[in-house]
């Protein structure tokens, strides 16, 4: 091949335009090289459109015309011989194009642009013919040399290379865009998930708070009821005394008072006062115990808790809750066992367990119903065993009791939150452990490990 042509090919091959991904730029570079190499003034790239029966011009460069922006189209219907030859995928070398069997149909086109010779080289991409490189000579009797044909062929191949690069860059950009979209979606989803989680946490906190207040509410109702009884007796005793005193005053003013009458009055009054003071004392002790446990149920503070003392006071407050079903509660704890913990949380846990016994373990009133709470020292703190002799639980129930909203008493107003809150309080707040064992018909036992905090 002529050195001049070789040099042009080398320059094109090395040009950054070819593999840069911008097909327009690469096409221009290739067409300029063709014009330079073949010394022609008009050259174009034509590509099949949809099928191999129709082609349109992709880019035409014409040194004699400044406006080549118009897209030209040709179809097999008008140029059957030309299309039939192209389908052989061989280069058409037409020195006198108007006479050549492959190009004679294009006579009108040639006249319009002053063309004599044509060198049409197939363009291939991924092994398929996609169009032609049309080199057009305006010189009469132009003879395309072998070198020129080879030169045009190589540039046609370089065009295929440029097409692949453009496709690759397009894919890369698409991937990049998809990646960005994906990242945006992931970010959006993460945000929504985070929001949902935050909402869930808030809802959970609210539920814990509500349940805490509900447990406290039950306690208040029970204690209020219990305090009402001794206070009622005290009021009756006072009224009785007042009545007797009035009678005594009348007799005294009449001067009709007898010694016997006075003696009866004094004895009655003593009885009334004994009743009065014992009932007032009972009311006061109930209030005292209630204060000890209820106050810190709503505010959790870390304290050194003497378990025996604390549980005794708590149970006195809780007894009214289970009184209807005649449930007795006993405590077996060494006075010396102390644990540094949130005793308010512990009170809430025991309140929930007692409430569950009343709701689920014992169905009717029976003197035999019993809850025993025992405390043992443990190297980390203390172990509290809470045991009832109620109806117990089936394995299926036992598996789910700590799950939020699991309840077998939805019809009776159970929300299924009691034990899930107990679980959270023991494991999270008190950093302890909770375990449960149960036999249907025999009862249940909750075992709590309460560590020193
Ligand atoms: N001591 C028990 N004896 C028998 N079954 C029990 C006992 N404690 C709990 N259960 C069972 O465990 C379930 C879940 O208890 P949990 O305290 O979580 O909910 P609940 O008592 O049904 O409703 P809530 O406490 O919210 O009012 C109960 O529905 C009940 O079936
Ligand atoms: Mg419950």
TrEMBL record:
Keyword Ribonucleoprotein recorded: no
CDD domains hit by this protein: HATPase (cd00075)
Organism expressing this protein natively: Idiomarina aquatica
Record-listed E.C. numbers: 2.7.13.3
Protein name: histidine kinase
Coiled-coil ranges (or none): 179-213
Enzyme category, top tier: transferase
rRNA-binding listed as a keyword: no
Domain Histidine kinase: 222-453
Alphabetized UniProt keyword annotations: Coiled coil, Kinase, Transferase
Catalytic activity, reaction form: ATP + protein L-histidine = ADP + protein N-phospho-L-histidine
GO MF, any single term: protein histidine kinase activity
């Amino acid at each position: 091949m002529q050195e001049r042509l070789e040099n042009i090919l080398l320059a094109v091959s090395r040009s950054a335009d070819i593999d840069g991904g911008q097909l327009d730029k690469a096409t221009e570079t290739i067409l300029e090289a063709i014009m330079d190499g073949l010394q022609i003034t008009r050259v174009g790239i034509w590509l099949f459109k949809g099928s191999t029966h129709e082609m349109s011009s992709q880019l035409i460069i014409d040194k004699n015309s400044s406006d080549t922006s118009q897209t030209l189209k040709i179809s097999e219907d008008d140029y059957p011989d030309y299309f039939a030859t192209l389908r052989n995928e061989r280069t058409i070398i037409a020195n006198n194009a108007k006479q050549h069997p492959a190009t004679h149909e294009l006579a009108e086109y040639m006249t319009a642009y002053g063309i004599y010779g044509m060198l049409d080289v197939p363009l291939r991409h991924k092994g398929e013919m996609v169009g032609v490189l049309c080199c057009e000579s305006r010189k009469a009797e132009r003879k395309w040399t072998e070198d020129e044909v080879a030169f045009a062929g190589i540039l046609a191949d370089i065009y295929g290379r440029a097409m692949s690069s453009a496709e690759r860059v397009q894919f890369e950009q698409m991937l990049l865009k998809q990646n960005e979209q994906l990242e945006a979606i992931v970010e959006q989803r993460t945000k929504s998930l985070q929001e949902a989680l935050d909402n869930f946490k808030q809802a959970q906190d609210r539920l814990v708070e509500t349940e805490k207040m509900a447990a406290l509410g039950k306690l208040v109702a029970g204690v209020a009821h219990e305090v009402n009884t001794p206070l009622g007796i005290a009021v009756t005793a006072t009224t009785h005394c007042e009545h007797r005193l009035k009678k005594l005053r009348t007799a005294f003013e009449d001067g009709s008072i007898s010694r016997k009458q006075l003696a009866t009055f004094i004895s009655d009054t003593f009885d009334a006062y004994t009743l009065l003071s014992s009932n007032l004392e009972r009311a006061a002790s109930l209030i005292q115990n209630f204060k000890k446990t209820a106050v810190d149920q709503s505010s959790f503070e870390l304290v050194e808790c003497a378990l025996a003392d604390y549980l005794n006071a708590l149970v006195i407050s809780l007894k009214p809750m289970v009184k209807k079903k005649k449930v007795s509660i006993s405590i077996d704890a060494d006075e010396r066992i102390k644990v540094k913990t949130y005793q308010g949380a512990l009170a809430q846990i025991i309140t929930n367990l007692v409430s569950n016994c009343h709701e689920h373990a014992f169905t009717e009133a029976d003197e035999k119903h019993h809850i025993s709470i025992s405390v043992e020292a443990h190297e980390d703190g203390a172990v509290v065993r809470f045991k009832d002799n109620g109806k117990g639980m089936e394995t299926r129930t036992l598996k789910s009791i700590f799950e939020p909203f699991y309840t077998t008493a939805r019809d009776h107003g159970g929300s299924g939150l009691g034990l899930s809150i107990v679980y959270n309080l023991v494991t999270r707040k008190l950093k302890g452990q909770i375990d449960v064992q149960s036999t249907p018909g025999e009862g249940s036992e909750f075992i709590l490990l309460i560590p020193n905090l």
